[in-house]
Amino acid sequence: MKPPFYITTPIYYVNDVPHIGHAYTTIASDMMARFARMEGREVLFLTGTDEHGQKIQKAAQAERTDPKTFVDRVSERFRQLTPLFHLSNDQFIRTTEDRHIKSAQALWNKMKEQGYIYKGGYAGWYAVRDEAFYAESELINGKAPTGADVEWVEEPSYFFKLSAFQEPLLTFYRDNPHFIGPESRRNEVIRFVEGGLNDLSISRSSFKWGVPVPEDQDHVMYVWVDALANYITALGYPDENTSDFKKFWPEALHIIGKDILRFHAIYWPAFLMAAGLTPPKRLYAHGWWTNEGQKISKSLGNTIDPVELVETYGVDQVRYFLLREVPFGQDGDFSRASLEQRINSDLANDFGNLAQRILSFVYKNAEAKVPTPSSFEVQDEALLKAAQELLPRLRENFEKQALHRMIEAIWELVGAANRYVDAEQPWALKKTNPERMATVLYVLLTVLRHLAFYVAPIMPQTSERLLALLGISETSISFKNLIEKKLESGVQLPQPEGLFPRIEKERKE
Ligand code: ME8
Predict the structure, then answer these.
(1) Residue 191 burial class via C-beta count within 10 angstroms: exposed 0-12, middle 13-18, buried 19 and up
(2) Does the beta carbon of 21 sit less than 6 angstroms from any atom of ligand 1?
(3) Which of 190, 341, 354, 432 is buried most deeply by CB count within 10 Å?
(4) Which atom of ligand 1 is nearest to the CA of 295?
């Protein structure tokens, strides 16, 4: 039995509408959730919105709207990413839901009971944009290290004894070397913790838009205590005995951007340890996208609207580009020129053309049926073997979240299949050796079948279309099915159609 799989995205702040950076994290997580489902694993894939805190309250005020009306509206925009990008999340959580407020308060109470929360007063710097406290020594030219404006905050506050967790955290990182990926991020976290940890202010009393601190209505929880708890709320916390909690919590993988690593790699395991819970199994922090070389920001007016992008280029094209263009874990630049380039070369020329060549040839020259092969030659066996041996490579890279490597490996097979078509020239065999032609076509259709399965986590719609073009009415596209079943000879194929239109327009720079 394969272990269950729990994968989460950050819950996004609703102070602003979704852009391509948010879509990226969720699409990458979707690829992993879909891959795990194809492995026959039981999957819970969670995304949602983070709706409390000063930043949201200010955004609502700026629009002269009450916070609840405001968050309802913006949260819906994030929820719409699911149908837009064909995401397969099992839940969409909102931190304003009752179940979550109950869960965040229960987590607080647990930490308090264990003696890790005390009351004091906070005097220091706070950056609303980051929803983070900064020490004087961290400021650069009077701003947060992220460039965010800081303000001086002086108010009564509850504190979490983060300082007590320096050693437990370092031990935990040592005992769980795979807790943080990529490796470079792990080292960054360890260095930071080795530098010493101060207790953390975990409540605010100068505004109201947050989860009330239990038994002290003058305080609301610091938004990160509230936000991080979402990952266990979704499993039924405070009830630790639900089947979801027991099944999924030990298998949790949090996918995040590198901007929020500290919260997930330091605060979150410390909160959990304080509440007597185990930290998640793993975190993976991906890199940062710029847009045409510039930081993506509302003030620069260059945020990329996901809806416009999908309307212009197509869902699977955008998904493919985001997953393929930048090695997962590294920073990258979004540009329309590179998106169009990838669509034309990788999708239209390499993959689309392969499918089109084979399917239309079979349609016209092999009675539109899957042919019956005779004996396989070495080159046939080699290509079929390459198709089969791709799966272990995909699995290996999946374990490391090397999503780009998975895609590269699939495209190696596309390349090998295109070379095989050129070498075997089925069109030339039509008159000279129809029996051999049937074998070559059978091999190629088999490779297309493999490709239709392999690309399913990346481009689900394309996968479905290709399976239909291959006459496969598979309801469950699992890897078990891929391996155990074979392409059936004699099956009637529908009229072929192109998978990816080329982008012909000349770009004016
Ligand atoms: O931090 N490039 O929410 P947030 C890549 N609510 N990824 C990007 C990106 C970019 N330019 N811009 C955004 C929060 N992201 C908290 C999280 S979790 C318990 C609470 C993605 O709306 C990336 O995943 O600021 C990043 O970590 C996240 O959006 C930040 O979203």
Answers:
(1) exposed
(2) yes
(3) 354
(4) 11
Substitution site in 24, 96, 211, 230 for ligand 1 pocket (most atoms within 8 Å of beta carbon): 24
C-alpha dihedral over 331, 337, 339, 340, to 10 degrees?
Answer: -170
256: Cβ below 6 Å to ligand 1? yes
DSSP one-letter string for 266-323? IIHHHHHHHTT-PPPSEEEEE--EEETTEE--TTTT-PPPHHHHHHHH-HHHHHHHHH
pLDDT, tens digit (0-9, with 9 covering 90-100), for 134-171: 999 999 999 999 999 999 999 999 999 999 999 999 99
Q: Say if ligand 1 is within 6 A of residue 259 CB.
A: yes
* 21 CA from centroid of ligand 1 (Å): 7
- Ligand 1 contact, 24 CB (< 6 A): yes
What pLDDT does 506 receive? 58
pLDDT digit string, tens, across residues 188-207: 999 999 999 999 999 999 99
Rounded to two decimals, the pTM is: 0.97
Which of 20, 50, 96 most suits a substitution to test ligand 1, by most atoms within 8 Å of the C-beta? 50
Domain boundaries, given as residue ranges, for the chain? 5-286, 336-484
pLDDT of residue 505: 72
Query: Bridge partners of 8?
Result: 46, 254
DSSP state of 369: B
pLDDT on residue 509? 47
| pLDDT digits 0-9 by tens, 28-58 | 999 999 999 999 999 999 999 999 999 999 9
| Centre of ligand 1 from the C-alpha of residue 24, in Å | 10
Fold of 5-286: Rossmann fold (3.40.50)
Ligand 1 center to 498 CA (angstroms):
36
Q: Which atom of ligand 1 is nearest to the CA of 9?
A: 24
Give me the pLDDT at residue 504, please: 84
Q: Is the CB of 104 under 6 A from ligand 1?
A: no
- Which tokens go with 82? 């699911």
Spacing, Cα 476 to ligand 1 middle (Å): 33
Separation between Cα atoms, residue 30 and residue 293, nearest integer Å: 26
Could you report the per-residue pLDDT of 301-331, keeping only the tens digit for each?
788 889 999 999 999 999 999 999 999 999 9
Which pLDDT score, from 0 to 100, does residue 303 have? 84
Q: How far is the C-alpha of 229 from the C-alpha of 197, rounded, in Å?
A: 21
> CA angle 253-322-36, nearest 5°?
35
Nearest Cα to Cα of residue 30 among 79, 80, 90, 78? 90
Count CB neighbours of 234 within 10 A. Answer: 25
Host H or E run for residue 78? helix 67-79
CATH placement of domain 336-484: 1.10.730.10
Nearest protein CA to atom 15 of ligand 1, as residue: 21
Span from the CA of 280 to the centroid of ligand 1 (angstroms): 19
Same fold, 5-286 and 336-484: no
Q: What is the DSSP letter of 165?
A: G
